[in-house]
Amino acid sequence: MGMSQARLALLDGSTFFTTNGLGDTDGLEDGLYFADTRHLSTWRLTIDGAEFHLLSVDTPQYYSARIHATLPSVSVGVNPTLSLRRERIVATGVHEDLHLENYSDEERELTLELALGADFADVFEVKDQKIGSRQVTTTVDTDTITVGYRHDGFTRATKIVFTEPGILHPAGVRWAIRLPARGTWSTCIDVTCTDNDGEHELRVGHGGFGLLQPDMPQTMQQWLDDAPVLHTMFDPARHAYRHALMDLAALRFHPLRGMEHSVPAAGAPWFMALFGRDSLITAYQALPFHPRLAATTLEALAMVQATGSDDFRDADPGKIPHELRHGELTFCGRTPHSPYYGTHDATLLFLILLDEYERWTADTGLIQRLEPAARAAVAWMRGPGDPDGDGYLEYRTRSPQGLVNQCWKDSWNSIMFADGKVADPPIATCEIQGYAYDARMRTARLAREVWHDPGLADQLEQEAAALRQRFNADFWIAGRGHFALALDGGKRQVDAATSNIGHLLWSGIVDDEHAEATVALLLDSKMNSGWGVRTMSSADHGYNPIEYHNGTVWPHDTALIAEGLRRYGHREQAAELGVKLLEAAAAFGYRLPEVFAGFQRKGDKPVEYPTPSSPQAWSAGSVLLVLRTLFGLDVEDGTLRWAARPAGFDGPMRLENVPVRGRRHTVEI
């Protein structure tokens, strides 16, 4: 892969700009995206009709890049005397500076051209590569090109302003430049985006390249300074921790107008949006490090909790949403993401996070404010979440555009039998029952201690105990010695061996007689690749090491499993799994991708998955959860507890400034 083919992605909240290394669009998916719409689909710079030759690209921040390039005539012994510096910052829109320098003693005449265009494609169309044609209007002024689009009340526009006069036309701008000997030429370009709320100002600071007026309560530096400090001789942990903090900062955005605080988007580039499950799990992973993320995530999701039933959007009262979008397809009601509620675990994870947040922060004010949302979530769990009333939560989409699978493995073929047959809905996956058990136990504690409702607490604990007993009987497959992945529409056990059973340990639903066998299966080489736990056993018919949910390794999945092993007293094995994940992070430049291939470990690097999101929120969060597992961190009865001795590798580890219930602590093992 040549340098110009290297991908460059700059983020600012839910705005992102993807190009090649030169900063030009050259792929079907490239462009500037604002609020789920592509506001620039073409952005290409040429000199005398040819593409520049890339020398280097540097990204000082997740929202800025500095690109150095020269003439395409470069070869051995031929050193061009002209250089280009391109400085770009994504800040709601884009600010880009172009600088040409002539290093020769002769005047140069040249033509610089910027081709530009906007197709206003919806992010879903680009992702699926089914882009509809739109009637776009372009107006050209002395220094401004404006591309606009309107349809059925949906309005978008992209305005491009140039400081240096050139020949402007609907498809771009051409500058005829006379560059003196040893001289320079520069121009500034501002790109602003307009939607139904009007034009959104650029947040570019003055006084030099790369200064962004922060849209966040904390700048990147404040965010890093506010996090606990890790001291360890284990390099993968130290570097992956810093990278994870930076990625989580980069993925923060404001999902709802008027929200002061930010939540983590799921991942770049296609999932820069509010997600229920992803944001809740990420916030859970980050609790001992940045507890504020949990508060804002809970508040944001409570604001869009469903109040009624809607088949098109798979909504029922009390349900926490899956995904919220703002593009044209959603605006015009052609997709159900306004928001879409097709997730059967987010409502349970909401209750789990609510309790864990209170343990770490003592913020009973938020727990009281969200009491109505929590009670509505409990009512959903007891009612619409269990359509046939058998005590297990099962899902089946009611929407023509709904997700067939509404667990975390939400691809169409993720719930299959050991022989490779895909299960028929309605489907009750095992880990969702585990979450429902945990949600009841945790909400009972909040009901008793914060809402002063012992009656509800007793009821929930009784329901949880009954569920645990039934689950261990109904989901256990005696002949195979492990829990079923799910019960299908005919209440048959879906018998593939999968990583889902590891989440059962995390939730605490597994009884003692089944715990050892569950641990043994997860750590067996058919499940454990040596880098992490496979989503499906290599012994089952549906296994494929590069199938999205049937054989790959997902960092967040393995991190939750490691935490489950620790919950059941298997600290050494939990630490070993966590260390393997940190070693995988080191092999990927200290950034864990969304997913990687499930091939058995050979050599120093896991095999890459073809199209992972990166950065991705719950993969970054996995590093934080692994650190919690290694340190053995828990808050019990208002007190921070940790392990007495290190597990997983030699040498001491220290974590300074851990925020617990209004105070900062130092933890050392």
Can you walk through the features of this model?
There is one protein chain. The strands form 9 sheets. Strands 7, 8, 9, 10, 12, 13, 14, 17 and 18 form a 9-stranded antiparallel sheet that branches. The protein has a 5-stranded antiparallel sheet with strand order 6-5-11-16-15, with no helix packed on it. Strands 1-2-3-4 form a 4-stranded antiparallel sheet, with no helix packed on it. The radius of gyration is 26 Å and the shape is globular. Helix 4 (276-286) runs parallel beside helix 16 (617-631), helix 7 (346-361) packs across helix 10 (430-449) and helix 14 (555-567) packs antiparallel against helix 15 (571-587). The longest helix is centred in the last third of the chain and has 21 residues, at 454-474. With 669 residues, it is of the alpha+beta class. It is built from 16 helices and 32 strands.
